[in-house]
């Protein structure tokens, strides 16, 4: 293993970039009223107009491939960007997520667009379906067929690899460098370098019913980076972005909560 001061994050990034996805959750137009009713019932957003804005605008997040099947991938992301639709007594469900159009965009298509400097490019998102959700542990799992991942140059399927990322089996060591790769709105391949601080139970006001351990990291993170994977120097996932504690400190869902999804996928 490389010494801490010798970590080559460029190499880690090059290994993982093809596994990162932009994810869009958009309300189905014929489900808008039902989603507004649900938002009114859970009232995690107090102001009515703000609630309705969140319902109408949907949500974007970052996700990553963690399991591959012959016909497609499983992609993991976070749930908290949809917190206007659930609370502690009414967790987020598949039925609620089915009221949305969920689409994904792979890094390879975006790379083509960026390299060609296509300012007005219309991106070709692929359809995803819900494979699992646990809002208490801030996790959504999506299934996407290989045939849904399009390339940009024609109407064909993306032929490049989307390697599945390995989730670390160990709790991260404190005070070690780490790297997050995220896809905020219109900002693909955003890299943030930080330092692990501590692993602990979540200790924030809990109207959403969180029941999980988190990894605290000295790191600046951008809006719409939710769900982005955090990597150790070996390129293993050691958490997924849960939120910001302050301008310079963020928290990530601990890997202990991710292992069950991997085990379930292998057992399917």
Low-confidence regions: none
CATH topology of the largest domain: Thrombin, subunit H
Distance between the termini: 34 Å
Structural class: alpha+beta
Oligomer: single chain
Q: Average pLDDT across residues?
A: 91
Features:
268 residues, alpha+beta, Thrombin, subunit H, 2 domains, 7-stranded antiparallel sheet, 6-stranded antiparallel barrel, 6 helices
Structure description:
The chain has 268 residues and is an alpha+beta fold. It folds into 2 domains: 4-15 and 165-258, Thrombin, subunit H (Beta Barrel), CATH 2.40.10; 17-148, Thrombin, subunit H. It is built from 6 helices and 13 strands. The chain has helices spanning 9-16, 32-42, 48-57, 94-97, 107-115, 259-267; strands spanning 20-27, 59-69, 72-77, 100-106, 126-127, 129-134, 139-145, 177-182, 190-201, 213-218, 229-231, 237-244, 249-254. Strand 2 (59-69) and strand 3 (72-77) form a beta hairpin. Helix 2 packs across helix 3 (48-57). The chain is globular. It starts with 8 loop residues before the first helix and ends with a helix.
A few lines on this structure:
Pfam families: Trypsin_2 (PF13365). The protein is of the alpha+beta class and 268 residues long. It has six helices and 13 strands.
């Amino acid at each position: 293993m490389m010494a801490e001061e010798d970590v080559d994050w460029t190499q880690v990034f090059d290994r993982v970039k093809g596994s990162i996805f932009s994810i869009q959750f958009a309300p189905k137009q014929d489900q808008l009223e039902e989603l507004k009713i649900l938002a009114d019932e859970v009232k995690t957003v107090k102001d009515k107009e703000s609630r309705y804005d969140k319902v109408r605008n949907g949500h974007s997040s970052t996700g990553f491939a963690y399991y591959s099947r012959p016909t497609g991938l499983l992609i993991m992301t976070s749930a908290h960007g949809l917190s206007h639709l659930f609370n502690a007594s009414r967790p987020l469900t598949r039925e609620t997520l089915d009221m949305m159009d969920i689409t994904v965009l792979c890094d390879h298509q975006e790379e083509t667009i960026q390299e060609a400097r296509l300012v007005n490019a219309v991106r070709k998102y692929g359809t995803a379906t819900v494979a699992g959700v646990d809002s208490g542990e801030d996790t959504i799992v999506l299934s996407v067929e290989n045939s849904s991942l399009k390339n940009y140059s024609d109407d064909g399927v993306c032929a490049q690899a989307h390697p599945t990322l390995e989730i670390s089996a160990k709790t991260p060591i404190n005070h070690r460098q780490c790297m997050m790769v995220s896809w905020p709105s219109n900002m693909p391949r955003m890299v943030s370098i930080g330092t692990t601080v501590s692993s602990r139970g979540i200790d924030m006001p809990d109207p959403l019913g969180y029941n999980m351990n988190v990894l605290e990291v000295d790191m600046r993170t951008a809006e719409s980076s939710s769900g982005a994977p955090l990597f150790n120097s070996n390129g293993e996932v050691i958490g997924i972005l849960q939120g910001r504690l302050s301008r310079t400190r963020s928290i990530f869902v601990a890997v202990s909560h991710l292992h069950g999804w991997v085990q379930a996928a292998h057992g399917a």
